[in-house]
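Quick one: structure tokens for this chain, please?
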Amino acid sequence: MAENKRYDRVKEITDQLEQGIQDLFESDRYKNWLTTMSRFHDYSLNNTLLIAFQKPDATLFAGYTTWKNQFGRQVQKGQKAIRILASTPYKQKIEREKLDPDTHLPMKDKDGKPVTETLEVLRPAFKVVSVFDVSQTEGREIPTLGVDELSGEVRDFDIFFEALKRVCPVPIELTEIEGGAKGYFHLQENRIAIQKDMSQLQTAKTAVHEMAHQKLHYLKPDGEEKEERKLTRNAEEVEAESVAFTVCQRFRLDTSDYRFAYIAGWSHGKETPELKASLKTIRQASAEMIDAIEEQMQILHKERNAEKEQIEVKNNPSRESLEDTAQKLAAELDSFAYEFDPYGYGDVVEDRAVAVDDLKNQLLAGDLHVQGMKDYLREVAEEGGEYAGHAGVLLVRSMNLNSHLRIWRWSSPCRIRQQMYRLPSM
């Protein structure tokens, strides 16, 4: 009985999805979905659609109990829950013919009958869950979410544009373009051209749009030209413009000039599976671009901070400035080690505040005490992957601090300063 009720609830919401997809392709509704996706780019296509249909201005979700117990907030009386789908996979045992590991053919017993084996498989399943947006709750204040607004003259434009160039697999160049176009992707020369001397906002938005074209329609990850997807030019523009709008929304670039007036004409006559396939393409491309840009912006901010730190210490290599630099670096090293391997780090560190103090003392003690730390960072950086860039930045900062410490010690009138930061022998 309970299983039938759950099935009915899931069917009801999936039926709403099917109808909702057909109704989605009106200019304002479509923009609402893209805006929702920019905030929840790591959610599934179905759930971003469900959120957009029910509460397009949502920013942060949680269940009733989670809001109460973890955030100290209470759902306001009379608020209507937002229904989304949650994955509830279950295990099931199945019997199947056993295969010979060498020939991969079914095995038989001495009587010539197939040999079977029991396997446990994970079956996909879903249930409907009720959640509430932060705007539907009240109580303890929570930290501000999202990124700073980037509109008009784009704040930190140089960092944002450099992040785009690092993410893009082809060169981006500012140049003079004849004919009035703001930008284009050149397939034969494998590059993106952007009209120079435009505003920061227009330059950023044009770059994102052309990067979307390049990602969706032209190149495979290995640089080879993609096979023809049988898309019309109009369909390509819909996909690229949709991705560009979503990415720009995520980074708070002004998107008021996006109209999507042509979206109804593009979707007319298409079946739901075809429309859903395009929406999945748009969602995946948007999510991948947002994640990659955010990662590079974080790395760039760390690099800029390291450069400022180096200049400050170089211009004023006082004991106080070196201690302050070591304190900041120790805190970042602690955070990095915890994020990189939370279980391993937790096994050896009981008190992270004490660990930061120890790291600071090791950094101030000099070469021998931090060699293991440098080797660890170098290994992570050389392996590549998600944490390689951050590890490289921290390695450079630790080496710079070491150099400044040596200069400060040897330039001191009293060599006894060399003993000042040595750790006691164990």
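Confidence is low (pLDDT under 50) at residues 144-152, 413-426.
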